[in-house]
Write a structure and sequence with these properties.
Blueprint lengths: L1 E3 L10 E2 L5 E6 L2 E9 L13 E6 H11 L1 E2 L8 E3 L8 E4 L6 H12 L10 H5 L11 E7 L7 E3 L2 H4 L2 H13 L6 E7 L10 H13 L5 E5 L18 H5 L13 E5 H8 L7 H17 L4 E5 L5 E5 L2 H5 L12 E4 L15 H14 L1 E2 L4 H5 L42 H16 L4 H14 L2 H18 L39 H16 L9 E2 H7 L11
Parallel strand pairs: 1-7, 3-8, 3-11, 4-9, 6-18, 11-12, 12-13, 13-14
Antiparallel strand pairs: 2-17, 4-5, 9-10, 14-15, 15-16
Helix pairs in contact: 1-11, 5-6, 11-16, 13-14, 13-15
């Protein structure tokens, strides 16, 4: 494959991570030897599998794979590929590998995850091998069963000796030798499987990582390998916050964590929460259990629930004030979101599903609107909308005067007039209809009304959800800029190079709302577990963003 370097300053995007901030992926890593289409449930019987495929495994590898392939545009084609502008400008894996063949293979596999966007930097983990030349690299053998289940045989190897001092040395090496990049997030995975990076040692690592990131960045902790029945509570009750704070693995580190991810089983093992299979009761139980972590200082708790989707609960304004990169619109929010839909016959591989969800949620938290309305510029696709469930009847604005206020890229209205789904629809179609109808307002209205009536219910609901986002954007929040004080300089393109009429200062710097972010993360995870998209070297986030407007069915597995 040949590559053509692209000038990232030439592209325009509605959503971007400010200052081109990179992400550090740290913690457990190994080579996953996957046994595909495995049969059986164990025991002495001879089970079968259909081929073997090795890939980078563990939190570091799975996060790198997800983050590195997110891009703003598609490559040109399969034979002469453009290097598309990445969403995450630099992805840096920090893990322990040996000089053995498995270590060399893992380094190569990690580097290959950035083949499309050229954004994975393996220098620091490679340099760190000299600190323990006798280390052997971790290996996992994973039967991937035909029904999507997976098994795991794990040799911890280098992960068993990976300690906080080694991680801190890598962090300092990164800080001293990466002047060309700023970093906005530090993702750490699987402390329960890293015996020398737990408790106070883990808190020390987080403190050092916070110091090298812009404005302190975002600290993300992704759990795996939590032992069953870790907490014993009387009569099946929840544990207390003090019990969590005294947890030998997590306790001292929890106050440093901005986003904490776990699945339902891990939540139960840590808190003693019980799930009854009733949607309402289980949501209440999740909320109570998540509150325990919030009381320990965590800012955002995200719980993936397989086919039931995910649950996210956020802390209050005081906690968010200490992590400037977190969206202030998430403060005190709680959200349950259905999982993304996959066709019934989809072949799935659930290995790494939680890592990809967590990576998607982190990116969603970091993205900010650039103030550009790309739809208004090229009129090529429906406007991007948030996920907001709204089943209220659509109220049509039938007045001819409504056309007078329409302008390309006008974005959220600043008038006191109520914005309706139909008026938003008309705003987007106005430019094309104006040229087609010779600026005849009556003709424009009649055509637009006919188009609206022929739209599907899903499209109409999408515009209803967009109305809600406009209403939310108008509300003042602690870090919401106004047209008077907004700074656009931290985005990669120069504001003067774009069309002034298409830049909306009411949208600039706005984050995704929590529900949209959760749906975005679920869609990223869906692309990871779907075997038809799992090995794609790139994912265009604009398409994922469009699809995050609605997904009514359940994801097969997270």
């Amino acid at each position: 494959v040949k590559f053509k370097e692209s000038n990232v300053d030439e592209f325009l995007t509605e959503w971007e991570i400010p200052n081109k901030s990179g992400i550090i992926c740290a913690g457990l890593a190994c080579v996953d030897m996957q046994l595909l289409s495995a049969t059986g449930t164990g025991g002495e019987a001879i089970d079968t599998f259909a081929g073997e495929k090795s890939m980078g495994g563990g939190s570091v590898s799975m996060a790198c794979k997800t983050l590195a392939r997110l891009c703003h545009v598609d490559p040109l084609d399969d034979t002469y590929m453009q290097v598309p502008p990445p969403v995450v400008s630099s992805v840096v894996p920090l893990c322990k590998v040996g000089f053995d063949n498995t270590g060399t293979k893992l380094i190569s596999l990690l580097e290959d995850t950035g083949v499309t966007c050229r954004n994975v930097d393996i220098r620091f983990m490679r340099n760190a091998r000299n600190r323990d030349p006798d280390a052997t690299t971790s290996l996992a053998v994973l039967p991937i069963y035909k029904d999507g289940r997976r098994g795991c045989f794990f040799d911890a190897a280098s992960n068993a000796t990976f300690d906080a001092s080694e991680m801190v040395e890598m962090i300092e090496d990164l800080a001293n030798n990466s002047a060309e990049h700023t970093f906005g997030a530090f993702m750490f995975g699987y402390p329960h499987l890293l015996p020398k990076m737990q408790g106070e040692a883990l808190a020390h690592v987080f403190s050092k990582a916070r110091n090298i990131m812009q404005d302190g960045g975002i600290i993300v902790l992704d759990l795996n390998g939590v032992p069953e029945n870790r907490v014993q509570t009387p009569f099946g009750s929840l544990c207390s916050p003090s019990m969590l704070r005294s947890d030998p693995v997590l306790g001292p580190a929890l106050s440093h964590v901005d986003i904490l991810h776990m699945n339902e089983d891990e939540m139960a093992n840590l808190t003693g929460v019980k799930f009854e299979g009733d949607s309402h009761l289980d949501t209440r139980a999740l909320s109570s259990a998540a509150s325990l972590f919030l009381k320990c200082g965590v800012a955002v708790v995200a719980v993936t629930r397989g086919k039931l989707g995910c649950f996210i609960k956020c802390n209050g304004e005081d906690r968010f004030a200490s992590s400037k990169f977190l969206p202030s619109t998430w403060i005190n929010k709680q959200m349950s979101v259905d999982a993304a839909w996959l066709p019934q016959d989809t072949v799935i591989n659930s290995n790494g599903a939680g890592d990809s969800f967590t990576s998607g949620l982190l990116v969603a938290a970091m993205l900010r609107h650039t103030g550009l309305d790309i739809t208004a510029m090229d009129n090529s696709s429906p406007a991007q909308s948030p996920l907001e469930r709204d089943t209220t009847p659509v109220e049509l604005d039938l007045s001819m005067e409504s056309l007078d206020s329409l302008s390309v890229g006008s974005g959220p209205s600043t008038s006191n007039k109520k914005v309706t789904p139909y008026s938003l629809y008309m705003r987007e179609k106005y430019t094309a209809l104006k040229s087609q109808s010779s600026d005849d307002k009556k003709t424009i209205f009649l055509k637009c009304h006919e188009m609206w009536e022929n739209e599907t219910e899903e499209i109409k609901l999408m515009y209803g959800r967009k109305c809600k986002e406009e209403a939310e954007i108008r509300k003042p929040t602690p870090d919401t800029p106004t047209a008077k004080n907004v700074s656009l300089s931290f985005f990669s393109h120069d504001a003067t190079k774009s069309l002034p009429s298409s830049r909306n200062l009411h949208l600039a710097n706005q984050p995704m709302n929590l529900e949209t972010a959760a749906q975005f993360a679920s869609l990223v995870a869906a692309r990871h577990i779907d075997m038809s998209t799992r090995e794609m070297s790139y994912l265009n986030i604009n398409r994922i963003r469009e699809q995050s407007t609605a997904s009514p069915h359940g994801l097969e597995e997270i």
